[in-house]
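Task: encode each sequence below as structure tokens.

Item 1
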Amino acid sequence: MLEFVQRNKQCLPFRKLQNGFSLLEIMLVVFIIGVLLLVALPTYQSYVAKGNRSDAMKILSEIMFEQERHQLRKRTYTTDLSHLGYGLVKGGVESDLGFYRVTAHPCSAQLTLRQCVELSAEPIPTRMPAWEKALSLNSRDQRKGEW
């Protein structure tokens, strides 16, 4: 048998060993990765948005607690958050992670600061995506936004 193969060596088709990947295989892998990213990226972004909102919720709850303490002592709420011991940056208090700026104002035109105060956490545009919305909390525990 060995003689037959050696004699007919020139008759056997010459096959070059393949090294690497073909263009089709690479394109298929890139396509699959693209589909996975298309599915996974929105989910990832929603988790990031929830994390950022939790930063706003935390600071709103902390400031509202301080507002309630201030109301017990002075019989009124305050719109000046520096009276509660917070340092103001551009008219508001920045959240711990710096994604939101919190301000205080009366709940409505009909209610005075003795009756109700509303805290609003506005996303800081340079640090948050444009689609992120504001959150608010008032002293009557009414919430606005995606809590």
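Item 2
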Amino acid sequence: MRVNLSHRYPRVMQLRDGSQVTVRPMSRADESALVEFFQGIPARERFFLKDDVTSRNVIRGWIENLDLSYAVPLLAFDGHNVAGNAVLIRHRSASLAHAGEIRVVIAPDSRARGLAVTLMNELVEVAREAGLREVLFECVAGIQELAIHAAEYLGAEVAGDLKAWVRDDQDQGHDVVFLRLKL
């Protein structure tokens, strides 16, 4: 996934509520801001993320191993604070080289402003520019409902689900919903 991001960012984007955020790719200078951002995400939601985002070592690993041919991580800043984090991940296998996955996390005080849709849409455009033909959104039903609605707003359709696929800290099963957006 070769994409020239220098012409796109940083970029001021207006949200549905009229407020503005500055969007740009993650950089080495973002470690502390990202740790602070993820600490502000409710523990119940963080539990279902794919990495332990409360670990400074995990965040540092993302930054030190940044490979834009594999992943394009975008941050949305409201002033000096991270309001949202989104990433487009390209599959490395030849059979899935046409597809990517988009993940998004929004700070609680930045929700219901259109930020998730804005970041998802931005990464859909990056995916198109990179020549991808479709993107996948993988969401936990009942936990990541806003992400599901944002993906559907962009035109993604439910491709399937896995019943009780993930378990919470009380060992309660939750469905995982897969949404597919053809580009």
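Check on item 2: The first strand starts at residue 11 and ends at 14. The beta strands are 11-14, 20-25, 71-78, 81-90, 99-106, 134-140, 157-167, 173-182.
End of task.
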